[in-house]
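Supplementary Methods, section 5.1.

A reviewer requested that the exact input to the structure prediction be made available. We therefore reproduce it here, unchanged from the version used in the analyses.
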Amino acid sequence: MEQRAVIKFHAKLGTSATETFKMMQKVYGSECLSRSKTFEWHKRFLEGRQSLEDDKRVGRPITIRTADSIQKVQEFVSNDHNATLRMMEQALNINKETIRQILKEDLGKTKVCAKFVPHTLTQDQKLMRLEHSREIVRAANNSSTFLKSIVTGDETWCFQYDPQTKCQSAEWKSKSSPQAKKTRKVPSKIKTMFIVFFDSKGIIHREFVPQGQTVTVAFYLGVLQRLMGRIRRIRPEYRNSDDWCLLHDNAPSHTSLIVRQFLARNQVCVLNHSPYSPDLAPCDFSLFPKMKMKLKGRIFNDIETIQRESTRILEVMPKIELEQAFESLLNRCKKCIEAGGEYFE
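The structure derived from this sequence is encoded token-by-token as follows.
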């Protein structure tokens, strides 16, 4: 403290740090502050520091769980739900591992990432999902053949190149091997639209939308007419209109008046499908993801090659996977009911 006072005195006199250090060496000898410390304090006093005391130190972080530390962590998390352990350690002066134990063991908290959902559902949409799910569960409970009598279909895009998922690009490597890298890529602009209808027994009808054609009401009406013809030929068990039912989504071309009138004239039973509910559509949660998983990461030369390979994948798809799609539909409807119409994990 005495030597710091000397440094402060000389700094105020305008003596240089070097001269101050030399004079202090003559007076204090071996007990003199080091050159670096002398220069450091000289600079501090030149910058206006007045105190000779050391700066207050935070000290070693607390490693013991106490009622006080638990309360501090709880208050911090309630004010900032996204706070990291490191942020809390620096702000609260509590050891990071101690904070983790408090969060998990004392407060029963787990950090969970947000899940992307297709849409922010309104209360009416939740009620609609709830009612439609109950209808399917009720029908499945009343008839053991109900799930086997559903014919469902939809449209999807097949790309010339669709990037691999992160899981698909995973490789087994030793510790010494360099980590593989991949650049972010987006699906190609060259693509073709595929329309597929299937039931638990297999694919019933498939076709590609001609290039430049959009799925208008008139086009979709033609698709349904071709579907009805295929059903009469390859599904004799569906000869009566009440032997099967159609499940398709709420796209404008699917729910237009002309299409509804056509289905009514042919006495086709149509299952209700809630808007913004790909999680309740077998095409969206089962068939198309499985088909596209085998197309990802591959580059096709032209539209014809994309169509040929997409068709081949559908032809060799095991029947058991199509059956499981409808069993999964029933399970998903039950989960939707449990979630009160909300999206579920």
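The longest strand covers residues 150-159. These observations are discussed further in the main text.
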